[in-house]
Known about the structure:
77% of the residues lie in helices and 1% in strands. By secondary structure, the chain is mainly alpha-helical. Strands 1-2 form a two-stranded parallel ribbon. The N and C termini lie far apart (67 Å).
Amino acid sequence: MFASLTFRRRFSDLSEQEVLALAISSEEDDARIYRSYAERLRSAYPGSAAVFDGMAVEEDHHRQRLIDLHLSRFGEVIPLIRREHVAGFYARRPVWLSKSLTLEAIRGEAGAMEKAAHDFYLRAAARTQDAATRKLLGDLAAAEAGHENQAKALEEKHLSPDARADEDQTAKRQFILTWVQPGLAGLMDGSVSTLAPIFATAFATQDTWTTFLVGTAASVGAGISMGFTEAAHDDGVLSGRGSPLKRGLASGVMTTLGGMGHALPYLIADFWTATTIAIAVVFVELWAIAWIQNRYMETPFLRAALQVVVGGALVFAAGVFIGGG
C-alpha cells in the first residue's frame, strides 16, 4: 500500500501530454461507468437507461476529440496514465459495482462525477503558470461542463415529466417492498407480540431487572426469527421485492427495536415508574406504526390507528391479566 502511494505522480509534475493522456483515460472510464448504469436500469427504468446511454456516447465523443488533439500535438503513442497514478487527482468511488444503488443514487452519482471533474480541471488551471497548460485545462473544464448540460438535454429528450414520474413511482414502490413493508411487519410484531410476555412478567414478579431480561430475550429472539423468516421465504426474484438480505435485515432490526422500546424502561429500579414509562413508549410505538401505514401504505390514519390500538390493547390486557393473576 505504502509503495503504491510512493510511486504516485503529483499532478503539477505531469507534462501537457500526460495531462491529455489522463483526460483520455478518464473519459473512457466514465463512458464505461455510464454504460454499466444504463444496463442496470434498462429493464425497470428505460428512460433513465437511455439518458446514460447518451451520456456514454458523449463521453466517447469527447474522448475521440482528445485523442485527435493528442495525435496533432504529440503523435500516436498515448502514455498509459490513469487517475490512480496521480496524487490528488479526483477519484471515482467504485459505487457502480454495487447492485443496490437506487435510481436517485445513480442520478446523484452521475452528477457528482461531472461536477468533480469540472471543478478539478478549473482548480488545476488556476494553479499553473504555463499558458498552454492553462488553456488545455480550461478546455477540459469546459468539456466537463458541456457534459452536464448535455445530460440535462438528454433527460429532456428521453425523460418526459410523465416518464420521470413513472420511474420515480417505480423506485418508490421498490423502496416500500424492500425496506418499508418488511420493516413495518417487524415493528408491528416486535411492538405487539412482546407486550404480553413483558407485562405479564412485570406484574407477576414486580421485579424490573427480571422484566428487562425477559423483554430483551423476547425482543432479540423475535428479531432473529422474523429476520430469518423474511429472508428465507422469498428470494425476491419472482415477487420483485428485492434482496432477501435487505428485507431480512429490515424486518429483524425493526422487530428487535419494537420490543426493546418497552423493555428498556425496566432498567429503572422503581417498578411503577418503569411501568408508566413503558406504557407511554407503547403508545408512541403504536402511533409510529399507524403513521408508517398512513405514509407509505396509504392506509387512512384513523383506520390504521384503530387497528393497531385495538390489537395492542388486547395483547397488553392479556399480559396484565396473566401476570396479575
